[in-house]
Amino acid sequence: GESVGLHLPTLSVQEGDNSIINCAYSNSASDYFIWYKQESGKGPQFIIDIRSNMDKRQGQRVTVLLNKTVKHLSLQIAATQPGDSAVYFCAENVRNSGNTPLVFGKGTRLSVIA
Amino acid sequence: DAGITQSPRHKVTETGTPVTLRCHQTENHRYMYWYRQDPGHGLRLIHYSYGVKDTDKGEVSDGYSVSRSKTEDFLLTLESATSSQTSVYFCAISERRTQETQYFGPGTRLLVL
Fold it and tell me: Which helix (H) or strand (E) holds B5?
């Protein structure tokens, strides 16, 4: 099985509903954010990114919202489909971070109920 | 997977043996990274490279070494594998180091007995 997904928070949604996945970040120096999707047994796949000079960015069926005041990032998936079932995690680029430019969250498992 | 391959995809080895994982890219990106992914942790950076023969340590580099003799290849070596190095290893690439998406390979699942 997929051991990297153990103990993750899980979001279950009905097929066709909208999904909202949240990510809190702690570093106010973070200036660039990425959402990744990871299916079982595969590598993380880029979904969408946003820079700190923006508060919203839209892609195909996905929207990322950035609230710098409360250091919160969210990924909205419209009309969720079974193929959206995966672990989603955010990554933040911490300015002047030395050797670790990207810091990754632990992720949320999205389960789509058909 | 953005023109990134990893080999082997699965490996079982014994404690104390050396292990080398290979990452190969066809995108001609300057930066290459090795991460490990474990339950309860996000992806953690082991080492990265910013050019041929130019490498630097990440946050969990102890017990690992890397080499990059060509732009397209980045090798990760476990000098003497330990059970704590059982993990899934991912290679990633990017054109720039900061403010830039990293694209990941399919991963190598390593079990150290």
Answer: strand B4-7
Contact A2, A103 (CB under 8 A): no
List CB contacts of B62: < 8 A, sequence separation 6 or more: none
The answer to whether residue A106 scores a pLDDT higher than 90 is no
Nearest-CA residue of chain B relative to A52?
B99
Task: State the smallest CA–CA distance between residue B81 and chain A in angstroms.
Answer: 20
CB B108 within 8 A of CB B9: yes
SS3 A82: helix
pLDDT for A3 equals: 37
**pLDDT per position as a tens digit, B65-106:** 999 999 999 999 999 999 999 999 999 999 887 778 899 999
Residues 6+ apart with CB under 8 A from A64: A33, A35, A48, A49, A50, A56, A57, A58, A73, A74, A75, A76
Distance from CA of A54 to the nearest CA of B (A): 14
**Greater pLDDT, B95 or A85:** A85
Q: Are A110 and A85 within 8 A, CB to CB?
A: yes
Strand pairing class (A19-24; B4-7): unpaired
* Residue among B88, B97, B99 whose CB faces A4 most closely: B88
Say if the Cβ atoms of B101 and A3 lie within 8 Å. no
